[in-house]
Write a structure and sequence with these properties.
The chain has 429 residues and is mostly helical. Helices cover 69% and strands 0% of the residues. The longest helix has 34 residues. One of its GO terms (cellular component) is plasma membrane.
Amino acid sequence: MTLFVVLALISALVTFGLSMLVYRLAHRYKLYPKIRARDVHTRPTPRLGGIAMFLGIVAAFGVAWLISAQFPPLKIIFDDPAQILAILGGALLIVLIGVADDIWDLDWMTKLAGQFLAAGLIAWKGVQVYALPLGGVTAIGSSWISLIITVFAIVLVMNAINFIDGLDGLVAGVALIANGVFFLYTYLLVQQTSPSNYFNLASLIAALLVGACVGFLPLNWHPARLFMGDAGALLIGLLMATSAIAVTTQVSPASPSLVSAELMPAFIPIILPFAVLLVPLLDFSLAVFRRLRAGKSPFSADRKHLHHRLLDMGHSHLHAVLIFYGWTAVASIGCALFFILPAYFGLPAWWAAVFLVLGLIACTAVTLAPLSKRKALEAASQAAAPDSPDAAATAPFDPLDEASEAFDDLDAVPSMANTAENQTHKDQS
């Protein structure tokens, strides 16, 4: 565990230092695009933070390789250097595609082709879904099916992560939480299934991603000074998918630790990767459905993502980001507890179910809170006398009033007291 933490720290420090360098160079040479109609920020901001994240991860991989001779358990990860080189090669390709898109705005077909090439390179060199630990049943028997599933899974996760990259600190924070939980889970899982081989590729990738997100987040926190851009979002998606796939190659589907009387723990290796990606996959699915129904390309841009809808509901920028963090934490931690509580604390799995249910209820309540406030304002507006100050103050929230389109932000609405005072001054004049 200590060695993973040290490598994550190296990834964080290198990422932070290079992020500062990229930020200064981008402003010196004006390497930032114009603000688009769907953007939430209001000032030009560099989008090249993904370069710093990539180099931070590469640096940590390099240190891990250099010290692997002194740490035999770590050397196991580098027994097949072609696999590591394929992962880094695919990551480099996707970063180049992302940087080109951030600067020149590539068409969606070019970006998708690059994503398939990067995913294909990783799958070709052996990081594939060879077996699914579905309660002790191996579900994949064909190498071609394995390769196809792997490629499409990586491309799906890359786009899911990229789709939610719309608010300051959103992707970096969500990835930090998701990979933190996934690292802990893979580390403990491999200890259960292979006690003598607890260093594994999945845990290493997750740890380095956590480090990169920690190093990048200070410059990406609201108000952001640097964006990760498509390069960073696609890189995170590619490595998260690769980490999840790598765990299937190191956990035997027939392991006694997974095949137990409890059904849920046996399915956690499949459920948890989806749980940590709950928010991105949900947003991706809704966006694709919405665009196809409108007769548009599923990769066309719009301003109807989940984070946009949270802002439109009345949440502030920070509140919207924290809500995403909350949903990600509850889903990922809740699913991981189905494995951790019975295996390490001897507690029944239903405690994890209780945590998951209560957490989802709390997240739902916080997410929908502005709607209750808006409904109360609508009711007050419709109940107020037509010529009263209260009617003027709440008119923007009456859906039957044309003035309802005047305000999108709850904080922008003048208070009833201020409206009444202004009306008194007008009457006196």
